Amino acid sequence: MLVASVAAIASAEDVENEREVSFVESPDSFEMVSESSGFKVNDQFSLSFDEGTIVATYTADPAASAIRDWQLELSLETLIGFEDNGNGNLDSGDTIAWTEDPEDWTYEVVSHVTSLPDGGNLTTVKAMSEDSVLTLEFIFATSPALASDVPISPTDVKLNITINLVDAEGNFDMVALVISAEADFESILEHEEMDGREELNLTHDGLGGFFLWSDNATVDGNLAVVGSSWSEGDLTLTYPAGDSIVHDPIIGVRSVAPLSGLASAKEILGNPILFTAGLAFASALVVGAVIASRRNKS
Length: 298
Prior knowledge:
The structure is a single chain. The chain has one domain (6-291). It is 0% helix and 57% strand. The protein contains no helices and 26 strands. It has strands at residues 6-10, 20-26, 29-35, 44-50, 53-59, 69-83, 95-100, 107-115, 121-129, 134-141, 145-147, 150-152, 156-164, 174-183, 188-194, 197-204, 207-212, 216-219, 222-225, 227-231, 234-240, 244-247, 250-255, 263-268, 271-276, 289-291. The radius of gyration is 19 Å and the shape is globular. It starts with 5 loop residues before the first strand and ends in a 7-residue tail after the last strand. 44% of the residues are buried.
């Protein structure tokens, strides 16, 4: 249960395309809500983390009689050390050295807020597993900003994943992180490859969201290629083994037609993408699988 401790609330008066962002945290979970202010259409984007699961939700106009919204759930299911058979992916020909279940871990959540030069705030939230094996760093802002030198819009959340394997035992030369991805009943979730990048792309009634990541990670300070595979709603990211692995996806909102905010072209992870300041949730994964799954709307 979230404790009513508001870490950051920023108004949309200082910057033309700024949003109101509220943030509530407890010792082991948090929720962020970003709302447009002063644009043609009011919209709301929220992201929460609890027990190894990230839930992103978007509503085009909360006050409308006919609600248009979507939800994307990303669960960190399994962390695996394995000896690779040579293809760089986790499959039946590999030898498993160990497995861990991030969903079963306890996480400690801490946060801090910094002021942006042109007004507004940038919030950084860290969720660290009890044994420090997995650290998730979430970065979001009230207006366009740089997060770890990557431009983000106010409806993007930069996610830095750090895997610490200093104390890992067994013979393994690769590490896999398995993420279960599930969309709401009315949305379509596709695993796609476009312009050399991979993403999970969610679409629903002219709206959309994404989970986008770089095809490189940092392993013990050196750049390394990230492998990926998609099967029946599970995304598997693979990395060369090392004491420290750092990878940096982005979660965000995408709109087919800009409904709010200012449109700006940005260079994201080496690829140009058109974002709207009011609507931008994009993602990237492998070719051509489509799933539609149900969520219980209560």
